[in-house]
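Please go through this chain and its backbone structure tokens and walk me through the local backbone shapes. Keep your notes short.
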Amino acid sequence: MVDIDDVFAVLAAWGECDACLEDLNNDGMVDIDDLFEVLANWT
């Protein structure tokens, strides 16, 4: 289930990230693209 906790997790991890779960597109950054992915899968 995707909910507000997932949004907060992405925001908390914002920036460069090596292999963290919040980097949903595996590009080494937690950014707007990852936030959009969370929002697209909101339940």
In short: The first helix runs from residue 4 to 12. Residues 4-40 form one domain. The helical segments are 4-12, 32-40.
